[in-house]
UniProtKB/TrEMBL annotation:
It is found in: Cell membrane. Coiled coil: none annotated. This is C-type lectin domain-containing protein. Residues 118-242 form the C-type lectin domain. Residues 1-11 have a biased composition (Polar residues). It comes from Channa striata.
């Protein structure tokens, strides 16, 4: 009598036989390797992008620095050009430029010896002993030095000239400025502009002869904003010359 062996075959829902465990394991390994490879590729791409960005940033910084250096160099050149133009303008004021006076030992200076620089101007405070000069004589003296009587433009300049004047002789004497009164009673500076500062003394020091032109002089040792007084064309005083600085 033969013994019969029966077996039950289990099928998948779609009717196909199930995959073997080995095949499933192989698929898992392939998927893992693919995932690892993709991760490595992503990492490589990120590293590459970061390297490129770093190089671009370094290049941009270099270009920015070079551009800033060019801007600085341009500014320096413009400043040097302006100084040269200013110096040329100052030199052209002379019919014959006194090289030995301005450039002793071949090194140029802004002002002649005895003149004082303030901002872009040179000032000569005439301190010679008496006899001094009338306003017309004072202006002629300044013009012979390629200058003119001082013109006050603002409070800072007024303070400068006041601080460099000294009391002498009496309370009526002072230093002539480049300011005079016209026939229509306007006060005009020698450069042609009307005076707007009006730093006149508050007390009446003297009454000038009104038959001629009236001029302004600065009285030392007085309030800086109230030290101008009037003088006629016969009154002799010291004075202040002014001209452009050379450099």
């Amino acid at each position: 009598m033969e013994t019969q062996v029966s077996a039950t075959v289990v099928q998948s829902p779609d009717g196909r036989p199930p995959k073997a465990d080995g095949e499933a394991a192989a698929c898992s390994r392939h998927f893992f390797l693919a995932a690892c490879l993709l991760t490595l590729v992503n990492i490589s791409v990120v590293i590459y992008i970061r390297v490129i960005m770093h190089e671009q940033e370094a290049s941009l910084n270099k270009v920015t620095a070079e551009n800033q250096q060019l801007i600085t160099s341009r500014s320096i050149l413009q400043t040097q050009r302006d100084y040269l133009n200013w110096t040329l303008g100052a030199i052209l004021n002379f019919d014959t430029f006194p090289v030995n006076v301005y450039c002793p030992q071949k090194k140029c200076q802004s002002c002649q010896t005895g003149w004082i620089q303030f901002q872009e101007k040179c000032y000569l405070f005439y301190e010679n002993p008496a006899p001094w000069k009338t306003w017309p004589q004072s202006r002629e003296f300044c013009q012979n030095k390629t200058a003119d009587l001082a013109v006050i433009h603002n409070l800072q300049e007024q303070e400068f000239v006041t601080n460099n004047t000294k009391f002498y002789f009496d309370q009526w004497h002072g230093y002539f400025l480049g300011l005079f009164q016209t026939a229509d009673k306007n006060w005009v500076w020698v450069d042609g502009h009307n005076d707007t500062l009006q730093y006149w003394v508050t007390d009446k020091l003297q009454t000038p002869d009104t038959n001629g032109t009236i001029y302004a002089l600065l009285i030392p040792n007085r309030n800086v904003t109230a030290n101008w007084n009037r003088a006629d064309n016969k009154f002799e005083n010291k004075f202040i010359c002014e001209r452009k600085a050379l450099i």
